[in-house]
Structure formats: C-alpha cells, structure tokens
Amino acid sequence: MQPSIQSDLRSTFGDRLQENVPLSGYTAARIGGPADALVFARSANELALTAEKLWKLDVPFLLLGGGSNVLVSDKGVRGAVIINRARLIKFNSQAEPPSLHAESGVTPGNIAMRAARLGLAGFEWAATLPGSLGGAVYGNAGAFDGDISRNLISLEIIHRQHGRQDWPVAKMEYGYRTSVLKREHIPAVILSAQVALKHGNLQDIQEKTKQFSEHRRKTQPIGASMGSMFKNPPGEKAGRLIEAANLKGKRIGNAEISTQHANFFINHGQTRAEDIKALIELAQNAVARKFGLELELEVELVGEW
Length: 305
Fold this sequence. Notes:
31% helix, Uridine Diphospho-n-acetylenolpyruvylglucosamine Reductase, domain 3, alpha+beta, Uridine Diphospho-n-acetylenolpyruvylglucosamine Reductase, domain 1, 305 residues, 5-stranded antiparallel beta sheet, 4-stranded mixed beta sheet, Uridine Diphospho-n-acetylenolpyruvylglucosamine Reductase, domain 2, 9 helices
C-alpha cells in the first residue's frame, strides 16, 4: 500500500486501525496472509460508516464476519479488511407471524439457539451453520433442506453510489448458494436483515435443533475448514464425486481432503492457502476426468494469488 494511502487510513481511523495483520486469526480455516489494514466494526452503523470512509478514500476492502466460505491467499489482502462484529438481535415475538431483526455480524447458529429458547420455529436448520448472517444472506447459505432465502423478509444494505437502502428479499434474485450481490459483485455491504419465524412448541423446536446439531457432528469433520468446498452439481453430491475419485484422505502439505466428508478440506496446522488451492484443482481435475462434471467452488478465493 502506498505510504500516502496508509497515512490517510491512520488519520481516518486512528486507534481503530491495525496494520499488517495476519488474517489466519480471522478465518474459519485458520489460513490467510497479512492485511495491509484492518478495522473492526461493532454495530451496523459503525459498519456503514467504515465502508463509506473506505469508499471515499478509494481503498478496496474485504468484509469478514465468521470467516467461513473464503480462502485467503498466503500473500494476504491489499487494501483494508473490515471485521464485522455487529451482532445486535431484536425479536418481535408478539407479531403474527413473529420475526427478528439482526445485524449482519451475528452467527446464524446464535439466532437459531435464541429463537428455540423463545419457542420460535423455522430457523432450526441454521443451528450449526458457520459464519455470519451477512455471509449467509450474501451466499444463500443453507442446510437440512433449508436456506436463508426462505426465511429472509428484507435486508438493509449500504451501496457505494446510492447509500443505505432497504431491499425486499425478491431483489436478491436468489439461486442455489448465490445471490445478485454475489454474482454481480455489487459494491454494497449487508448491514442487517429481517427474518421470518413462526410460533411452535418449545420442546419440539429444541429437539429438532438438537437432532440437526447431532447429525452435523456425525457427518461433518471437526477441525479448521472453510465449510463445504464445492457446490453440489445438479442431482449429485460433490463429496460423493470426490470420494469416488479416490481422493478421500489425500494430503498436500498439512492440507487434507477429509476422510469423513470429502467436500471438506481440513487444515491440520500451519497449512498454506496454496496447498488448499492445489487440492481444489486436483479434485476438480479428477472429477472432470472420471465423471465429465465440473465442480464449482462454493468457497471464494480472496486476496493476491
């Protein structure tokens, strides 16, 4: 980063600014080189103001919530990184149907657990979902036959040219693990979301949440990973294809294709992003040769490659 830009960032953010920070501490996979600059945002308003200031300075930035579904390069990220810690949740349990308003840095699992305690149903599928609500809204995250598009009522964004806006769910143009924000790389940041719930039986909701959590523990590996590496091709499962290509347990350096679920790539410690990327290419090539199918990444590659 040019010294003049670094100076502008210091003047703008003061003590909030951290410099040359390894991003491995802020990603679910515990992988990632240094960010030139890093700033925390602890509320939706602070997140909006931070984005506005960086746009005004014309400094590119990456937004990280829970740090899942991203692979940050070993060379790191030029420009700035915003760490989203905006986590306010407000339940409207007296409405019919009930709903909640949550800032984008909260984890979906936290929402699911708190809703369950209030006897509010419809979000149990997200009980073990990694990452942040903003990331889930951005990428239409899902599990157990549910996804965010079915719960989302509306969201608030801040757009680089048009400022703060409320979007109805239809404007997201959702598809499988994608949205218009993700597909078109729109210069906008998700600030908060309104999510639909429904009244239910407290015991039934808690039991369903428990079952989903237990199923995830039994079927998905523990350890540092990005989450599901590839999208499932139509009518297929990416994990089954990778396993059928005899790649379960394949290692490059300290990176491994999980022996429990082949669509998860595990960091066994001090793993390089380049080793994960090499395993990605190995899996894609092997599945293409064996089945004639192209595995599309669900994970996004960010930073300098």
